[in-house]
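Recap for those who missed Tuesday's class. We walked through two folding examples back to back. For each one, the amino acid string is listed first and its predicted structure tokens come directly after. Nothing is annotated here on purpose, so try labeling regions yourself before you check the end of the notes.
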Amino acid sequence: MTEVQLERYVDCPFSVAEGRIVDYLKLAAAGGPEAVMRVPLLGASLSLSKLVDLSFEQGRDETEPGRSHLESAIVWKSGTRLLPHFSGSIRTRIAAPGTRLLIAGQYSPPLGLLGGIFDVLIGRHIARATLRDLGNRLARSLEAREAA
């Protein structure tokens, strides 16, 4: 298993961030454009886009002491043997006046030993870039709703 994680500040109040994340994930689970995972290959100049089967469920965030709040457990399946399935979570933290967005998860490289070698050489970089793209799109969605 390869683990990846992302932390990003979002200009959206913590008090509404969790609900807006759920709204975004509902659209993704319904197969909307939010379910398209972009795999940057050469920075912004070339990328591969893949509609994934995304599912999520809400649960208690047990990783932080103090006031209880929620996290979203997410799973996306690529629908192909060439790309890995991903499972992880989206958590939020207070970062007044906004919110810290934490996305973490893991995947198993496909294609056995060959996939493992690819993962060490290039795949982990692609996975981190894909997670960064997801975090950026989620952040833009939250910030746009806040601005509206």
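Example two. Treat it independently of the first, because the proteins are unrelated.
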Amino acid sequence: MTSRMLSPHTTCPSCHEEVYLEELIRGRCPLCGYSLEENEDSCDEYDEMLGRADLSWLVFSYALFRRFGELGVPPLRILELVAACEKSPQGGEKGTHFDLEIPQKTTDRIMVKRCEDCSSLFIGGARKWVAGDLTSPQVRFYYTCPRCRSVGAPDKS
């Protein structure tokens, strides 16, 4: 108790609360966020590292992970999609289209399906795909038959 009383402290000019200097967060009051440093012109390392653009990119990545994670897309495929979006120019459409394989549900396994490539009807041994564009909220689900399975995802260019 005595060591706490002897530690350096000050009163925050913004919220008028007593604040101990060891509790400051990057030189700011932990209660209201007011900067208690004398040199306010200096930029924080954290603010430089995580700007508004980076924050919006993190939110975008989180939304993609959440959306495709609920569908069952493997995390590595989601990371590849995020990387493709990051590499594409901001005004370009390249990198916004996706074709991802997803696991089938029980109802998908027992219903009759039509192959996207050869248009044949089949029941088992299919692959389920989700396709769409990141600029629109609609996605399309389709299947490929066991014969077309070795080829992979159809090219929808």
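Answers for example two:
The two ends are 71 Å apart (CA to CA).
Residues 2-42 form one domain.
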